[in-house]
Amino acid sequence: MSDAAADLGYSKSELMIAASARLLGGVSNCFVGVGLPNIVCNLAQRTVAPELQLVYESGVYGARPERLPLSIGDPTLATGSTAVTSMFELFAFYLQAGLIDVAFLGGAQIDRYGNLNTTVIGDYAHPNVRLPGSGGACEIAIHARQILVIMRQAQRSFVERLDFRTSPGHSGDPAHDAARGWWGSGPTSVVTDLATYTFDGPTGEMTLRTLHPGVTLDDVRANMGWEPKVGVDLAGTPAPTDDELRLIREELDPGGVYTK
């Protein structure tokens, strides 16, 4: 496996963005942060989901930012928006009411059932690394109807056991999950720099769906803490199209802040 996808004409980040954007076809709204998820959603607006409404936890609904935002509080997020509300109103009247179709999450660690850690690495009382914490991630994980996870894959991030469970995913017991009474169905897709995953219906376990160009099953095994469940229809991830790359490079991240 090549260390970067540059020899294929695109970077690993560009492949992750294109693969994630295609998952948003037909979606009405998406709860999104800055960084790669923001570029993903803006690419989807220009390709597979022209009616997609971007929702930011700072209180903005229906944004079409004129430039790459610097943070979740960047005023550019309000550009062309349908509504600008308080964070309380956004969470209470949109998210907790079950009106958010899809949300993006990431984390320092993820396990085979899509549970996420953004709190600590190591012991909670005496951690090796203190992470930002939940913010709105736990509520998003519970109430958004679908959860898409985008993150880099490595042994230290794809772990058998989380150091701390910040945002719940599946439990491994579908009957238990169905009885929780949440709007959300739990994580539905994971896109990494090596592959894409879905989640098995009967077990809720992360299932390998496609391998990125140049990546082998052994590469995937070497970068996760458990033996992956492999889908019966395992395929290759389609490469970014020329139009997707043009949009990413010329309109969405011309400086290559997140994509190089």
Would you give an account of this structure?
- It is a single chain.
- The protein has 260 residues and is α/β, with parallel strands linked by helices.
- 23% of the residues lie in helices and 22% in strands.
- It has a ten-stranded mixed β-sheet with strand order 4-3-2-1-5-10-11-12-13-14, with helices on both faces. Strands 6-7 form a two-stranded antiparallel ribbon.
- β10, α5 and β11 form a beta-alpha-beta unit.
- α2 packs across α7.
- The model has no long low-confidence stretch (mean pLDDT 93).
Q: Give the termini separation.
A: 18 Å
What fraction strand? 15-25%
Enumerate the spans where pLDDT stays under 50 for 5 or more consecutive residues. none
Q: What's the story with the biggest beta sheet?
A: 10 strands, mixed
Q: Can you give the mean pLDDT?
A: 93
Query: For the CA atoms, what is the radius of gyration?
Result: 18 Å
In short:
23% of the residues lie in helices and 22% in strands. With 260 residues, the protein is α/β, with parallel strands linked by helices.
